[in-house]
């Protein structure tokens, strides 16, 4: 499955979304390190791409260069967005939104009833992005992030509640 989207009306650049492969991991780990205080190690991504049958990861490419990625899990009918990141120079251009949309579509196609994710309380941009897709806060996890002891919001998008905020 490869999906293409035009980045914006000002350019003719095409953003291609495709499943992540083992060959993508050096670029993915670089983006992960640029994006998070406690980045996942290479071994975690290797396991997700090669062993975890419940996982599906996607990369976003612009001109054959990986500019972002998103990961999902499906456990019974429960979807999870595990990780999403965009390279620093491409942030604020809508790539994160496209990646979240891809994760939602993937999990919906796999018959998830709902999607869960965790997000840092301080990450207002991400919280607002998830809300724009119909996610809502259902729980506060105190001290969830080990690197800073920061709290996390647990957010849910329930497909049974409404389809009005699917984002597509």
TrEMBL record:
Annotated protein name in UniProt: Ribosomal-protein-alanine acetyltransferase
InterPro entries referenced in this protein's UniProt entry, alphabetically: AcTrfase_RimI/Ard1, Acyl_CoA_acyltransferase, GNAT_dom, YpeA/RimI_acetyltransf
Domain of life: Bacteria
Family recorded in the similarity comment: Belongs to the acetyltransferase family. RimI subfamily.
Gene coding for it: rimI
EC number: 2.3.1.267
PANTHER family the UniProt entry points to: ACETYLTRANSFERASE, ACETYLTRANSFERASE YPEA
Keywords annotated in UniProt: Acyltransferase, Cytoplasm, Transferase
Gene3D superfamilies found in the cross-reference section: 3.40.630.30
Source organism: Psychracetigena formicireducens
EC class (word): transferase
Domain N-acetyltransferase per the UniProt entry, residue ranges: 15-160
PROSITE patterns: GNAT
Recorded GO MF terms: protein-N-terminal-alanine acetyltransferase activity
């Amino acid at each position: 499955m490869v999906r293409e989207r035009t980045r914006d009306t000002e350019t003719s650049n095409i953003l291609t979304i495709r499943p992540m492969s083992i060959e993508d991991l050096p670029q993915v780990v670089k983006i992960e390190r640029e994006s998070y205080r406690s980045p996942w190690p290479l071994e975690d991504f290797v396991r997700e791409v090669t062993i975890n049958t419940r996982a599906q990861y996607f990369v976003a490419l612009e001109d054959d260069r990986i500019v972002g990625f998103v990961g999902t899990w499906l456990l019974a009918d429960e979807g999870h967005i595990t990780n999403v990141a965009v390279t620093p120079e491409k942030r604020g251009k809508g790539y994160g939104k496209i990646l979240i949309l891809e994760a939602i579509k993937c999990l919906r196609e796999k018959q998830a009833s709902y999607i869960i994710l965790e997000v840092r309380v301080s990450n207002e941009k991400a919280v607002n992005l998830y809300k724009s897709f119909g996610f809502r806060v259902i729980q506060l996890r105190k001290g969830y992030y080990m690197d800073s002891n920061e709290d996390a919001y647990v957010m849910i998008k329930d497909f049974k509640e409404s389809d009005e905020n699917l984002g597509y």
